[in-house]
Amino acid sequence: MHILFRDGLADWDYLERYTDAPHELEAHMQTRDPAWASAITGVAIAQIEEFAALVGRSKRSFFRLGFGFSRQRNGAGEHARGFVYSRGHWRLGARRRWSLP
Q: What average pLDDT does this structure show over 41-49?
């Protein structure tokens, strides 16, 4: 999300209409750069940058969630939703089996 905000890939129209405190989220994410994530995950900064750019420039994204680590409260499912929300992918007209929280 840091990269989406930094590189102008966040969908501000969507964020301002359908989320709470998007500007506060952007400010918070400024402190969570790729170097911070790399130190925690062991994933190379370049790989984090590449993945974020791929998601940020895609019209639609698909994350398969609900398996392994993502099944816990603070798992990957929670983190992946941040990408989806910040890009506005929920509003692209895809059929959904669930609604926004």
A: 94
pTM: 0.64
CA distances from 20 to 7, 46, 92 (A): 21, 30, 20
* Collapsed DSSP state (helix, strand, coil) of residue 72: coil
Can you list the alpha helix ranges (DSSP code H) found in 30-100? Answer: 34-41, 45-57, 76-87
CB 70, CB 96: distance < 8 Å:
no
**Mean of the per-residue pLDDT values of the chain:** 78
Contacts of 90 (CB under 8 A, 6+ apart): 14, 18, 84, 96, 100
pLDDT for res 74: 59
Between CA 8 and CA 30 the distance in angstroms is 13
